[in-house]
Structures are given as C-alpha cells and as structure tokens.
Amino acid sequence: MSAPRVTTAPKVVAVTESSPAHRSGLRAGDELLFLNGRSPRDVIEYSLLVDEPDLDLVVRRRGLTDPVSIRVQKEPGEPLGVEVSSAVFDRVRTCDNHCEFCFIHQLPKGMRRSLSLKDDDYRLSFLYGNFTTLTRFTEMDLERVLTERLSPLFVSIHATDPDTRSELLRNRRGATSLRWLGALLDGGIEVHGQVVVCPGQNNGHVLDDTLAGILDRYPTLATVACVPLGVSRFSKESAMRPHTREEAAAVCDTVDSWQQTFLTAIGRRMVFCADEYYLMAERPFPAAHTYEGFPQHENGLGMARAFEAAFGGDEHAALGVRPGFFAAVDGAPAAGYRAPRSEPATTSRRHHAPVAILTGEYGARVLAPLVGSLGRDDIRLVPVTNNFFGGNIGVSGLLTGTDLVAVLGGQPEGHRYLLPDSCLSEGRFLDDLTLADLPRPVEVVPTDGLSLRRALEAPTGPVVPGTGCATAVRAPERVPVSLGAPR
Ligand code: SF4
Q1: Measured from the CA of 95, which atom of ligand 1 is nearest?
Q2: Peptide bond into 383 cis (omega under 30)
Q3: Alpha-helix runs per DSSP H in 117-233
C-alpha cells in the first residue's frame, strides 16, 4: 500500500486499557490517517467519526514504511478509548489582526512558542470558548457552523462602529466582519460577545455607541462582557495604559445604566462588567442574582460573587475557572475537554499545620473578607505580586512559577500552601515551570469557593512530596479573566 497523502492527522497520545482501541492494537504514537475513509480536519469531525460502531482505520506507525489497516468493532456510542494530541489537525486558523491591546504581543521573550500562537478559529471558539473576531470567517464556515450546530460561539466585538472596530483590530476587514455575527444569530447560534475596553480608545461615548449598536443590531446576543485591557511591562504600545480608578468607575456606571436599558427592552441585562472593574473602582460587586446565572463566569464576570456563594456552601455556585491563559493552543484530550488530565498525587496529612493561601493581588482582595469570616488565626493569605508580567496584571490565573518561587522561598517550611489551579495548564505555569520547581510543597485546589472551603476544613489534599509535586490538573481550557489577548 502506498503512503496516503495526509500531512496532518490525529496523533494518538494515550490508549485506554481494555478499550476497543486497545483491543484492536492501536498504540500511542500512531497517526490516524483515515477513519472510515475520511481524514478529519479537527476533533469535532473526529468525534463524529469515532462514534460509529465499526471503524476501518488507516494508521501511520513509527518505524513502518507502509500504513497499517486496523479494524475496530465496538458498541454504537462506545468510546474508542483514544486520546489525540490536539483539537485541530489541519492547522489552527491564525489571527491577522494587530490589536494594540493584544496580550500576546506583550509577552516576554523566551516563553514557549505555542503561547505566541494568535488563533482566530471558530472551532476553538466552540471547543474552548476562545473569542474570534470573525475577520477570517467565510461562507463555508458559516455553513458548517449552522449545519453542525456549533453553538455557543464567542465573538470579539470591541466596537460596533465599523471604522472604530477596524482601527482597534488594525485590520480593515474588522469594519465588515460583524456581518457574520448577524448571520450566526439569524441562524439560531448562541453567541457570547466581548468588548475589551481600552481607556482613551473605546470607553466613554464609544462604549455607549457600541452597546446601543448591540441593542439595535444584535439583540439576540446571549451576553456581552466588558473587560479591561491588560498591560504588561513588555508592552510597546504607547497608547495602551491601565484604567484610572475614575475610568474604571465610569465603565461600571455605563454598564449599570445599559443593564437597565436592556432589561426594559429585552427583559434581561445582557451586558456585564468584569470583576476587575469593581476592584479597580473600589466598589462592591453587584449582587449575585444580577449576573443572571453567571454565563460568562469563566471570563471573570461574577467570579467573586460565585466564589463567595460557593465558599458559603452553595454547591451550585462552585463553577471553578478555566486554568491557564493560553491553554487552548496546547491541545486537549479528544474526549472530556473539561475533564481531569491526571490523577491527584499522593495525599499527605499535615494536621494542625498553619495554612497559607497563595493568590494573585486581586484574588487576595476577594478572599480577605471570606477567610476573615472564618475567625481562624491559623490561615493567612499570601498575595503574589506578578513581577513576571508586571504592569496591571493582578489575576491569579496569570501567576507564574517564577513569582511563586520567589515568594515561597521566603515562607516557612512545614506549613500547608494552597494554590489555585487556574494558574496551571497541563501541570505547567505560563513560564513553563512546574510544581516540582517550587521550593515548598503545595496543594493545588480547584479555583472555586467550595473547594477552598473544603481544603481549609479538611487539612489534607494532594500535596507535593519533597520539594516538588504532581497534582490534579484540569483539562486545558481558556482564560480565567480576559486581559485583551484572548479577544
Ligand atoms: S487580541 Fe486577539 S484578535 Fe487582536 S491581535 Fe491579539 S490574538 Fe489577534
């Protein structure tokens, strides 16, 4: 058999013991060239193909010149038992915008290459909730989304005025690509929007115009998140700067006012402010019920209120957050995108040890009253300043190993150190360090109030043996709090 002309194919990274794949002889490292004669472009097509009860596979195997044919028989719907190496096999569609606020352009040198991938791919929007600007969206994409019901999707709006939007994206197609948003909504696709608000650019009257444009042209949008831009110390864009407290307060006021307008017009608030705005403005967070079910919780909207409710014992509010800032570009298991990727490591008991909660500067402000309400003097917060990125970066999800090493090195031995899982992706921090690089054992805790409460009440958990550790790491997903880069 001559080698099929397939340049990209799903690569098997793990085969489940006793699964149909295992019984049929599939191995880690195999490349799945054809499944029932088809070569899937992405894990969406792949999932449909492997759902079939009978599968004829053509596999490229390391060390063999010719492909191998493998027949798999399984029950309809029975999982194949294979984890593949990425979500998109025919290359991620990259972004051709040049936004001044793009966080990827603000990364320091020397970070792993995959972190600098600027994707603008509706498939990653569907799979991970990545935001797409739709500047590279096509008629064929629309047809596929509508046919396969790839819903919900997440769209970067930033401004509805065509000229303003194309200036913000620094791409002339930004002026027209929101026509696809209308087509998606007309086709019944659930779409969540985002506006990265940059002071002096699209705040003030531009934000008012944008929200008016949304109500006028896209009233069936599910939600709109207003998030502040993030500015790292590596930014070279002179016009990009953090909000002042007054500017942050003005955005809160604008959103609050528009929520009332949307409530009157369509019976729901639709637009929400990121938690960071209330912290910057030094204002209380809105009441939990005003978030209408926390639909953009993972993008930092209502996270503090949900955390508070879960910490108080409300299991339904324990929503957690998606770990890692750029996790989606690193691939994912074919099944269970939000499932654990590894088992918790050995549990070590440290009864009665003082507890330190490691968190970002913003997280510390949210946690302080909650931890204080416990009345325990054996628990302390350890805010970790983000010196790695610098600028106005204060969210826990962007904590790096480098900063944790510096802080933990000055902390006493023998204490319990709790770390939110939101700063890890596949066991790695954004700077590629791992838990094993930290100078103190840490317990990784899912980033929700209920998990933290339980970790504080029961002083056990997956703890690093010795100086390093391996622990439960959740599936790669998306950004906990938007900072501009993820559109
Ligand atoms: S912010 Fe997003 S759309 Fe803009 S340049 Fe960066 S990756 Fe592209």
Answers
A1: 8
A2: no
A3: 122-128, 139-148, 162-169, 178-186, 204-217
- pLDDT above 80: residue 342: no
Q: Are 133 and 180 in contact (CB under 8 A)?
A: no
Separation of first and last alpha carbons in the chain: 46
Residue 203 near residue 242, CB atoms below 8 Å? no
Look up tokens 């949304």; give the residue.
214
pTM score, whole prediction: 0.86
Q: Which two tokens stand for residue 425?
A: 């992706």
CA 366 to chain centre: 20
Mean pLDDT of 14-29: 93
Query: What's the CA-to-centroid distance between 115 and ligand 1, angstroms?
Result: 13
Copy the structure tokens of residue 415: 């204490």
Compute the distance from residue 171 Cα to the ligand 1 centre, in Å.
11
Confidence of residue 269 (pLDDT cuts 50, 70, 90): very high
In short, whether 97's Cβ falls inside 6 Å of ligand 1 is yes
Ligand 1 centroid–CA 94 distance in Å is 9
**Greater model confidence, 142 or 476:** 142
Residue 383 CA, chain-centre distance (Å), reads: 22
3-state secondary structure 380-424: EEEEECCCCCCCCCCCHHHCCHHHHHHHHHCCCCCCEEEEEHHHC
Distance from Cα 168 to the centre of ligand 1, integer Å = 10
Range list of H helices, 199-281: 204-217, 245-266, 275-281
Could you identify the atom of ligand 1 that is nearest to the CA of residue 135?
A: 3
- Asked if residues 480 and 396 have their Cβ atoms less than 8 Å apart, the reply is yes
Q: Is the pLDDT of residue 210 over 50?
A: yes
52-91: pLDDT as tens digits: 888 999 999 999 999 999 999 988 878 899 988 888 888 8
Give the number of the atom of ligand 1 that is nearest the alpha carbon of residue 485. 1
Mean pLDDT score across all residues of the chain: 85
Q: How many CB atoms lie within 10 A of CB 86?
A: 18
Q: Is 98 in the pocket of ligand 1 (CB under 6 A)?
A: yes
Helix (H, G, I), strand (E, B) or coil at 127: helix
Write the single-letter amino acid at 436.
A
Amino acid at 452: L
Rounded to the nearest whole angstrom, what is the distance from the C-alpha of residue 97 to the centroid of ligand 1?
A: 6
Confirm or reject: Cβ of 99 under 6 Å from ligand 1.
Answer: yes
